[in-house]
Write a structure and sequence with these properties.
The protein has two domains: about 5-135, Cytidine Deaminase, domain 2 (3-Layer(aba) Sandwich); about 150-365, 3-Layer(aba) Sandwich (Dihydrofolate Reductase, subunit A), CATH 3.40.430. It is about 25% helix and about 25% strand. The protein contains eleven helices and 19 strands. It starts with a helix and ends in a 7-residue tail after the last strand.
Length: about 375
């Protein structure tokens, strides 16, 4: 594969990312059809249940697909699901060569490369390493069956703090970074925050902006206790549009220590209660994530605070770490961000400047990647 092939495959990956928030649980996939030196068709998987990337690109290419090369970010599927096999579409269009990035691990959908070879199509791939495939489609390639793919996102200062004090919020991120957060939320099944974050600022935890999520994420909060929900309702918070307790907003699940669930049932009436085993004075983070996976939560975003971020990191339950660094210092006495061992993480993407902030993403290394 030469540099030109690599450029077209990277374009396919970029196109595929446009499906974020709309195609889950399917993977994000893009496709570019090239005839000679000219791109004659592009497409991506836009909606769950809708045409796959290859079909969209072939439709755009029309008759010019015959004898062309198709660059696909994921191995073309060979099974009949909600749509016909993409391998059949590529063969029928007369595509001469297929270059694909990641191998499809599916028992039924995988094996498209073999089907194409049997039909006389030249195939190059998989091109991506396992690590790169997971970085591009992390939820799809998530390996742990007992917990969701878990992202921890923290906004931090230059002196690695998350807030000036534990009892009040400290806005750090600018509007450009917040737009990226809303995009991130759109691709998640659930958003988790700790009790301290609930008490400090009663976050809305909704995805607002583009893309509009196909299924809005569940809001999961660790029980703040101390009558917080009772006071919130009495103060009119429940009537505030889009608030944590707005009945028109996505559901709220409250994670409660199982030995306290019955005692908390009165205050939490009308909310989904998740009894979870305790761990010392709080919840067992591994047990909570296991319970969420049992509830069909496959992608989880934790937005803090520092306590739950530390608990998840200490238990090695974070798959992707996102730090949004603001150009401010919070000084002595501020609440420090949870530490992490840099040697156990590798960059998932290049850092991005968003307004005045820097957005960085890391993926946790597996055992074979840690030296």
């Amino acid at each position: 594969m030469d540099d030109e092939d690599a450029r077209h495959l990277d374009r396919a990956r970029e196109l595929g990312e446009r499906g974020w928030g709309r195609v889950h649980p399917n993977p994000m996939v893009g496709c570019v059809v090239v005839a000679g030196d000219e791109i004659v068709g592009e497409g991506w998987h836009r909606e769950f249940g809708g045409p796959h990337a290859e079909v969209e690109a072939l439709r755009a290419a029309g008759a010019r697909a015959r004898g062309a090369t198709a660059f696909v970010s994921l191995e073309p599927c060979r099974h009949e699901g909600k749509t016909p096999p993409c391998t059949d579409a590529l063969v029928a269009a007369g595509v001469a060569r297929v270059v694909f990035g990641a191998k499809d691990p599916g028992e039924h959908s995988g094996g498209g490369a073999g089907a194409l070879l049997e039909a006389g199509v030249r195939v190059t791939g998989p091109v991506y390493s396992d690590a790169k495939a997971r970085a591009i489609n992390p939820g799809f390639f998530h390996r742990a069956i007992d917990r969701p793919w878990t992202v921890l996102k923290l906004a931090i200062s230059l002196d690695a703090a998350v807030s000036r004090s534990a009892d009040r919020p400290t806005p750090l991120s600018g509007p450009e970074a917040w737009a990226r957060v809303h995009r991130l939320r759109a691709g998640m099944d659930a958003i988790l925050v700790g009790a301290g974050t609930v008490r400090a600022d009663a976050p809305r935890l909704t995805a607002r902006g583009e893309p509009e999520p196909r299924t809005p994420p569940i809001r999961v909060v660790v029980d703040p206790g101390d009558g917080w929900f009772r006071r919130a309702r009495a103060s009119g918070l429940a009537d505030s549009p889009g608030s944590l307790l707005d009945p028109e907003a996505p559901p709220v699940w409250v994670a409660v220590r199982e030995d306290r669930a019955e005692a908390r049932s009165g205050e939490l009436e009308g909310l989904r209660v998740l009894p979870v085993p305790g761990d010392g004075t709080g919840l067992d983070p591994r047990a909570l994530l296991r319970r969420l996976r049992e509830e069909k939560i496959d992608r989880l975003l934790c937005e803090g605070g520092a306590g739950w971020g530390r608990a998840l990191l200490d238990a090695s339950l974070v798959d992707r770490l996102i730090l949004v660094t603001a150009p401010v210092s919070l000084g002595p006495g501020a609440v420090s961000a949870p530490p992490f061992a840099e040697a156990q993480w590798r960059p998932a993407r290049d850092p991005v400047r968003l307004g005045a902030d820097i957005w960085c993403e890391w993926d946790h290394c597996d055992e074979t990647e840690v030296g």
